[in-house]
């Protein structure tokens, strides 16, 4: 997930920085350098300061909502693909207007004003003094400083008064702390646009066929999308949604599509800025938003696109999903930002347990699914050790290597997008040798990946150690596709009969500088992720056009490419079947694996090689590449057969 960029500057003396998380060699940029050092507590925030929080209301009849979502994805039931309109959802599952009126009046009585009530009746924006929030929720809002940034957040868990406990599930904020990182890994710095256009020119169509310079045209070649295009399936009539924490320049997306010769729907991008909108800039993650739009909109070139952006804070992030659900305008939605699931626990969050926010996210994803909106989240780019991003990139420190997964990808009501490496050959002279490390001799054999595999840079480490020396040992750890087992969410029913599903491992604890922060449960039957994967390794990566990051860039990868690619693919399948929205993909994907296996008619391609530093590619499911990759044309055909009531589907 997230704009986790490993950037190799193109020169003979390569050096490596982590842009977006934590530095390996150089200093991290301030925004995403989460937990590289603990924030400095500056003391209580002035009690008269005006702050804002998001109050998330409880879904009514949550068990029934879970059951309804499952029923919409079961072709044997009459509720199959019978999705709800927003008024139907509010009537069945949201607090009524009278309850919200009572809540509003109560908040006003304690000095907190309700400034907005979302249309789904599940989120309200509340503004008041720090003193009012402190008194109502029994926490203390403090000011903090970290990496040159000053922000405020509550200290201590929010205690919801008993009078509100039946209506509120979570108090999100008041906080303006930058929390989340995007999921993108980059090999290259700025590439001259003129040079890149020359490279593109000799190729027919929209594909380049060149690793590190792939486009959406190459994605279509990799995953059998072209039969849909030949049948005039291009996303027409569909609307894609992007949830992001950085603003971007829409002109970049149009320029990218024009550069690769891709005709698209004119004036197709609508921006919705929440909570004052997200910032614009390279360090803010604008490149992430650019690639999300370029990839999703490039695969579905005649779909409309709505980009929801909000500030990079806990309230901003959760607002994105409730706003998209309340608008109910998009048919699919992807997000490429997140943080490790275990950071929601008190031991890793400054003593404040905010796991209630995981429930709040889950409600939003269930609403999206009930309304038929397919949602996708990136799995992360730190292999099986997602939490190591936040505490410092590198082997064992400052947080020890602890198996962990990313949120929101770990939520069972969203489809989690993992990563693979496609075959490539890289001359030894082009293999990175960071400043201060022994160079790889140019006479060494090329770095070669011969077949598609789970993305993990263990192969790069092994090569560098062999030809560059032992200094490279653990240097590239844990870069790779996210995957593992949730310690919070139990195993969902759609994964229950899937061979290869894992439980949490024993002996996992989060330790920083010798201090035990959190013991993780062993043998917990948790939700496994990812669900499916596509190419994400920057060595077999993509072009990105982002003015804020310097123009046209090559060598980009990360699971943040896969989420929006699935978003675009979902639009194509929805159009191809002619049956409207698809809803939550997951029950369908695991059912298709049981029905089709990995035979010639299967919409899934097994990935049996590689690893993400812990989970190895094996036949069937594993928490490295999940169920494997997609054959999109066959997936569209399988969905069409089910939609036409051909259940159980019979492989042709």
Q: Supply Rg.
A: 23 Å
Distance between the termini: 37 Å
Task: Give the overall form.
Answer: globular
Briefly note the structural class of the backbone: alpha+beta
- Helical region count? 16
Low-confidence stretches: 1-36, 189-199, 646-652
Number of strands: 31
Most strands sheet? 8 strands, mixed
Mean pLDDT: 89
Percent of residues in beta strands: 15-25%
State the helical fraction.
25-40%
What is the topology?
Layout (H helix, E strand, L loop, with lengths): L4 E4 L7 E4 L20 E5 L5 E8 L4 H11 L13 H8 L3 H13 L2 E6 L5 E7 H8 L2 E7 L2 E7 L12 E5 L8 E2 L2 E2 L6 H8 L15 H7 L3 H5 L8 E6 L5 H10 L9 E5 L12 H14 L4 E6 L4 H14 L4 E4 L1 E4 L15 H15 L3 E5 L8 H5 L14 E2 L7 E7 L2 E3 L20 E3 L3 E2 L3 H11 L15 E7 L18 E4 L2 E5 L6 E4 L2 E4 L6 E5 L4 E7 L1 H19 L8 H11 L7 E2 L23 E2 L1 H12 L9
What does it look like?
It is built from 16 helices and 31 strands. With 652 residues, it is an alpha+beta fold. The strands form 10 sheets. Strands 12, 13, 14, 15, 17, 19, 22 and 27 form an 8-stranded mixed sheet that branches. It has a 4-stranded antiparallel sheet with strand order 5-6-4-9. A 3-stranded antiparallel sheet has the order 3-7-8. The longest helix has 19 residues, at 559-577.
